[in-house]
Fold this protein.
Amino acid sequence: MAHFAHARVDLDAIADNVRLLREHAGGTPLMGVVKADGYGHGMLPAARAVLAGGATWLGTAFIHEALALRAAGITVPVLAWIIPPGEPVGEAVAAGIDLGVSDRAVLDTVIATARELGSPARVQLKIDTGLNRGGVGAAEWPSLVEAAARAEDAGHLRVSGVWSHFACADEPGHPSIPLQLSNFHEALEVADKIGLTPEVRHIANSAALLTLPEARFDLVRGGIATYGLVPIPDYDVPGLRPAMTLRSRVALTKRVGPGNGVSYGHRYVTDRDTTLALVPLGYADGVPRHATNKGPVLLGGRTHVISGTVCMDQFVVDVGDEPVDAGEYAVLFGDPTEHPATPTAGDWAEVLDTIPYEIVTRVGARVPREYVGGA
């Protein structure tokens, strides 16, 4: 029996989305990004679903995520790209995990670890092409590449990839996009002249995968789009299906008259005789408190808006005279193909002035994930 509140995850939707994205990318191999617990969908089920859809790589932010994939018996190439000091680099090298190298200190740590283990490490060198986050700047790039090439010649490394990340690919036409592509080409030329022969060169995230054929190179990274959400506002991808539906049964309903304040602070006041429905999900479950008087909810066959302050464990919806009873499902977001009035994570992002990534990844651990589909 389903928990009163749960996030239903359609694994077939994830697999189908990967197939669609691979077609969209002209057959370019795809890395399924499963960091942050598979963007809130569950890392291991999501990883298996993206592989069922034809992904040939997996991507994580941290080593511990990549090690969890290996512990579950997943053997495909995995890239982990954020390596703070003190991370278990040795375990990663032993597990054959590709390590993203964003500065000389990380490279030196990996080389020393590989030398101690007597086993070559797989690394992917990241060039900062203009995001100014992780990655090696253009001025330091040649010396990093030379050091990596020396270590490769000595048998301590295999430079398996060169990569970067866009800052504004979700804004098609942004002037930084061609500049970053040009910078990436220059970095690849440097690597080539120094003698590196990486297996994969990649810069395309979901937004670039969808809109920039010239950014495909050897691999594209399917992140948010893998889960059926489009990173570009008002950009339609026919056939892409949201994989997560967040819903809860109504705990109780009550009739109240006009002039009644609702929830903490009375930030909503009824203006007529009406029915209030109590939904047992709150900010402890990932429903943003900022959704007060904003968050859309499908209930009673049509879309309503959260009425009053979102609490830790619950919120209220004024449904008017709709015949809503305890036990009915309130759907916060999901797949509109199931019901045309279903809000999407993108709808939530729009009213909260954020991005759909935040909406799905913040769904809390208290909310069980229930999986459907055979992927």
Q: What stands out?
A: Residues 17 and 226 are 6 Å apart (CA to CA). The radius of gyration is 23 Å.
